[in-house]
C-alpha cells in the first residue's frame, strides 16, 4: 500500500486527480467510480480540467434499491450532477435500483464489469470500513449483490434525507471480489470519523470484519488521507 497524507480534502482531490491524469496518459480507459462526499473534490478537479473522457467508460460501485436515476438522492443523479453532465464519458454504468429483478440486475452488472475491466477504481470507506456497500462480514470473493445496509451506514447517510425513515435500507453493490479485479485502486478518506477504519485497514489483521483490509492483498493500492483520518496510525 502506498499511503499519501494530505492537508485536507481539497488537497486530497488534487492528488487523486494527478493519479487519474497519469492513468489516462498511460492508456486507462475504464474508471470505477464512487459516490458520497469523499470523491467530490476529485470530481471537481476532473470537471475543471481539460482532460477528455469521451473515449472512456465509467462503472459505479453502487446504487440504492428503490430509487430511480432521476431521484435527487440516487447515486446516478449524484454522478450526473457532479461529473457526467460536465465531463461526458463514452458510457456510464450505475446499477439500476428500480430493476424488477434485482438478482438479474446484479448478474447483468457482473457482465458489465467483465466486459469493461476496470483500470482505476476509486473508493471511499465507511466508518465501519465498508468499501462500496460491502458491510462487515461480506465474503472477500463476493460478486455484485443486493446488500442490507447496517444501522451505522443508514445513520451516516441520513444527513442526505429529510428523516432517517427515508433512507433506503438495501442497495446493489459491486462485490469485494469485483472491486479487487481493478488494476489500480485509489482509496480516499478524510476526517477523524474515518480514522479507526483507516488504522484497521493499514495496520490491522486481514478479516471480513474489516472489509477494506482485503486491500492488503492487492498489487497496486494508493490510500489518500488527511491528517484527521491519519490520527490513529
TrEMBL record:
InterPro entries: Glc/Gal-6P_isomerase, Glucosamine6P_isomerase, NagB/RpiA_transferase-like. The keyword rRNA-binding does not apply. Gene3D superfamilies: 3.40.50.1360. It holds the Pfam family Glucosamine_iso. It comes from the Bacteria. The active site is at residues 62, 128, 130, 135. It catalyses: alpha-D-glucosamine 6-phosphate + H2O = beta-D-fructose 6-phosphate + NH4(+). It is an enzyme of class 3 (hydrolase). Keywords: Carbohydrate metabolism, Hydrolase. Residues 27-220 form the Glucosamine/galactosamine-6-phosphate isomerase domain. Pathway: Amino-sugar metabolism; N-acetylneuraminate degradation; D-fructose 6-phosphate from N-acetylneuraminate: step 5/5. Its EC number is 3.5.99.6. Catalyzes the reversible isomerization-deamination of glucosamine 6-phosphate (GlcN6P) to form fructose 6-phosphate (Fru6P) and ammonium ion. Belongs to the glucosamine/galactosamine-6-phosphate isomerase family. NagB subfamily. This is Glucosamine-6-phosphate deaminase. The gene is nagB.
Amino acid at each position: 500500500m502506498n499511503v499519501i497524507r494530505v492537508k485536507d480534502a481539497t488537497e486530497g482531490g488534487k492528488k487523486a486527480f494527478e493519479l487519474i491524469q497519469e492513468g489516462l496518459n498511460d492508456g486507462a480507459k475504464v474508471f470505477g467510480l464512487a459516490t458520497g462526499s469523499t470523491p467530490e473534490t476529485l470530481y471537481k478537479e476532473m470537471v475543471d480540467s481539460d482532460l477528455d473522457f469521451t473515449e472512456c467508460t465509467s462503472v459505479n460501485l453502487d446504487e440504492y434499491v428503490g430509487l430511480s436515476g432521476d431521484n435527487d438522492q440516487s447515486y446516478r443523479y449524484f454522478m450526473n450532477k457532479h461529473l457526467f453532465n460536465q465531463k461526458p464519458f463514452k458510457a456510464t454504468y450505475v446499477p439500476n435500483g428500480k430493476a424488477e429483478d434485482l438478482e438479474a440486475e446484479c448478474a447483468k452488472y457482473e457482465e458489465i464489469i467483465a466486459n469493461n475491466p476496470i483500470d482505476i477504481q476509486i473508493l471511499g470507506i465507511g466508518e465501519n470500513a465498508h468499501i462500496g456497500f460491502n458491510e462487515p462480514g461480506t465474503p472477500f470473493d463476493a460478486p455484485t449483490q443486493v446488500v442490507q445496509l447496517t444501522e451505522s451506514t443508514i445513520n451516516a447517510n441520513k444527513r442526505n434525507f429529510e428523516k432517517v425513515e427515508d433512507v433506503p435500507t438495501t442497495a446493489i453493490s459491486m462485490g469485494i471480489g469485483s472491486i479487487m479485479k481493478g488494476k489500480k485502486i485509489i482509496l480516499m478518506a478524510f476526517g477523524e470519523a474515518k480514522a479507526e477504519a483507516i488504522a484497521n485497514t493499514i495496520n490491522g489483521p486481514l478479516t471480513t470484519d474489516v472489509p477494506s483490509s482485503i486491500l492488503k492483498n492487492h498489487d497496486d493500492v494508493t490510500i489518500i488521507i488527511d491528517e484527521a483520518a491519519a490520527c490513529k496510525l
